[in-house]
Amino acid sequence: MTKKLYPIFGLLLATAVLLAACGGGAAPAAGNGEPAAATEAPAAAPAEVVFTTPSGYGVTLEAVRARGHLICGANSQVPGFGYVDADGNFSGVDVDYCRALAAAVFGDANAVEFRPVTAAERFTALQSGEIDVLSRNTTWSTLRDTELGGNFVHTTFYDGQGLMVREDSGITTLEDLDGGTICVQTGTTTELNLADVFAAAGVSYTPAVFEDADGTFAAYAEERCDAVTTDKSGLISRRTVLADPNAHIILDVTMSKEPLGPMVRHGDDQWFDIAQWTVFALISAEEFGITSANVASMSGSANPEVLRLLGHEGELGAALGLSSDWAYNIISQVGNYEEVYNRSLGPDTPTYIPRGLNSLYTEGGLLYAPPFR
Amino acid sequence: MANAHKASASPPFWRDERVLKLLAQVIFGAAVLFFGNMLFGNMVNGLRQQGTTLGLSFLQNTSGFDLAETLNSYTRSSAYWQAFMAGLYNTLLVSAVGILFATILGVILGVARLSSNVLVRFLATAYLELMRNLSLLVFLIFWYLGVFLKLPLVREAITWPGNVLLTNRGIAIPWGLPTETWPTFKLFLIAGLVLAIALILYFRWQGKRTGKSPLAIVWAPLAFLAVAVAGWLLQPSAPLSLDLPAVQGLNIRGGRIFTPEFMALVSGLVLYTAAFIGEVVRAGIQAVSKGQVEASRALGLSSFQTLRLVVFPQALQVIIPPLTSQYLNLTKNSSLAIAVGYPDLFYVSNTILNQSGRAVEMITLVMLTYLFFSLVTSVFMNWYNARARLVER
Predict the structure, then answer these.
(1) Which positions in chain B touch A144 (Cβ < 8 Å)?
(2) B307: domain CATH number?
(3) Of B77, B354, B379, the CB nearest to A2
(4) B332 in the same domain as B281
(5) Taking CB atoms and an 8 Å cutoff, what residues of chain B touch A1?
(6) How far, in Å, CA of A277 to CA of A273, rounded?
(7) Distance CA B108, CA B124 (A)
(8) Is residue A49 situated within a structural domain?
(9) CA distances (Å), A238 to each of A82, A161, A164, A233, B222, in order?
């Protein structure tokens, strides 16, 4: 019986040898006949880079255009940011960003397919090319911007991590949670901040960690934990779908900076620029007072920058590889930043969050777009 | 020379069946290697384009996250590989506990299925049918959200006799805390174990020589117990102090706490796998010919003696191979822990994957680890099977 296992061990050993050979074998293999072709390619590529654009430049836009629609990695579980309703419609600020990007590329805000990704699988989905852009309340951090093979474009929502507890628990500060259990979602910066902040404060706790937001908040609802932690925006939005939203309070504790924004793959600077300037177009439109209602009448504006933004003057669209009315399409179909914000997070919505840091720099916020010229 | 002479009589090598078979194997092997190499090269190339490379050195980096329950001294400032080990230990714990209870319950179920008592037989059959037609994932989530999280809140904890606390934060039982005399007591325990094994071996040797020997199954545990009790009493103070669980602040303090995640996972795995083990046991017992049972009854053996001395030894050789695969199934199914938030190997690896972005390395590591445990379990069970096989005369 044992003998039957020998071939399996043998196969494993062979695989191991093969893997080892492949790992270090790229350079020495150059002398052989067939593998030489494979090693030539990377050698030739850097030489080209010096004179032309990088190898990945423009491939994403080309692929998206050929496909006919944008594929956007989105959240489906956080109302106000990325949420799918009973009819399968997506809504939220992250979702509207993808619509704006689709409007910029195709002139059609509906030319976008939303693909719900979990916190755990989102980076792999982006790396592997399954999605063109990740717009899923993702925090900008060093490792994600480098090792994970992605680039963050300008932040679309400035957030901070908070803690939500049941009001009747009497907990009001971080220290009150000593010895308690805290629900958190895996694969997030939240999980790391939680460990950092509690260690720094010398407060002991037990984490209860779950795979997705629904699982995390289901456990909190069952009182598996004393508090639940995620970005404050996430807490506010998830509170609206708890059985009794008024029975829960968000503590006045900010555990971290959470700049949330869209992310694209490394290696395609053109796509990065398009994604980046889509955010700036939204912000600038609010600054210049251009809305979906008045954008058509703005062709007579006295402000040259407005004319440049809307493509009535200059060739900014061509510089991005887009049509000249790219920003016009964004604003007419999706609106400016304020419209996007108020649609999902404004005072009339159940997920109301005061603008705070997410106001224009002229109103004391952090939203500041570079000039369009 | 004799070979050369023989070869001239055999067909040329391109029509020689043995050569052709060997050639087919070589070509197949080469094709597998070629495609494997191509896929691997493709992956490395893709990773290079993304600006990442393969390597395991990231396992030395600080993990930065906390785990709910660990058997080693893992903290947030430990390295990724320590987190991986913490997950591995948890998987081993769940598998070991799961296999133990699933086997006990499975044997009872298998025997109950063949009981002459109609009610017992019906209940066992109904249970088996229910379990075999359920999805394990659904079953686990039922145990987690439907049972263990529905237990009372900490401040309303149910207290069972013997200071067992039942809450939705876990089930706490009294536990022993090692005192300063514990290390010496541990030596007594080891000595007791050695004595017990020596007794078993001696009785077996004596049994073979004389055909008569005391029951090792009675005397060996007694010997172990005697040494342990002596060790406990000879110490200046008790080696273990009783640690009673109590509600304090937001949580239970003291005692040993079994979290709802652990309880849900183990309950689900045990109850599910036991159904399959029950069927394996039933099949094994039914494989023993009826004449054997009738003969043993004719000899005046009781029904329990018949089961223990005649049926089980013969049924074992039918039972062990499928039982092995049930054990392996349980171990592999424990990766569903991620659904109920228990930090097992797969769960922790997933977290490491997310925090480090090393998907290829982590998935490979996890696969190799599960493969390793499966192979080790098979080797052990095959060895045991070879031993338990009947010696034909």
Answers:
(1) 357
(2) 1.10.3720.10
(3) B379
(4) yes
(5) 382, 385-386
(6) 6
(7) 9
(8) no
(9) 11, 14, 10, 9, 59
pLDDT digits (tens, 9 = 90+) for A302-318: 999 999 999 999 889 99
CB pairs under 8 A between A and B: 134
pLDDT at B256 over 70: yes
Flag if B251 and A187 touch (Cβ within 8 Å).
Answer: no
Domain extent for A201: 160-257
Do A185 and A196 share a domain, yes or no?
A: yes
CA distances B152 to B69, B244, B253, B310, Å, are: 21, 19, 16, 48
Q: Are residues B11 and B128 in the same domain?
A: no
B51 and A266 within 8 Å at the Cβ level: the answer is: yes
Same domain? For A180 and A316 the reply is: no
Same domain, A274 and A143: yes
Q: How many domains are there within chain B?
A: 2
Q: How much is the pTM?
A: 0.73
* Residue closest to A49 by CA, chosen among A40, A57, A39: A57
pLDDT digits (tens, 9 = 90+) for B319-354: 888 998 899 999 999 999 988 989 999 999 988 988
By the CB < 8 Å criterion, does A15 face chain B? yes
Q: What is d(CA B94, CA B344) in angstroms, rounded to the nearest whole number?
A: 8
Q: Do B350 and A144 touch (CB under 8 A)?
A: no
Using CB atoms, which residue from A14, A119, A199 is nearest to B76? A199
- A148 touches B: beta carbon within 8 Å: yes
CA distance A185 to B64: 14
A180 in contact with B, Cβ within 8 Å = yes
From start to end of chain A, where are the E strands? 70-74, 77-78, 82-84, 90-91, 112-116, 133-139, 150-152, 157-166, 180-185, 205-210, 227-231, 248-250, 257-265
B263 vs B340: CA distance, rounded Å: 10
Say if B181 is an interface residue toward chain A (CB within 8 Å): no
A120 in reach of chain B (CB within 8 A)? yes
Please list the residues that pair with B257 across neighbouring strands: B172
What is the rounded average pLDDT of the residues A166-187? 89
Subunit contact A1:B385, Cβ cutoff 8 A: yes
Question: Mean pLDDT score of chain B, rounded to an integer?
Answer: 86
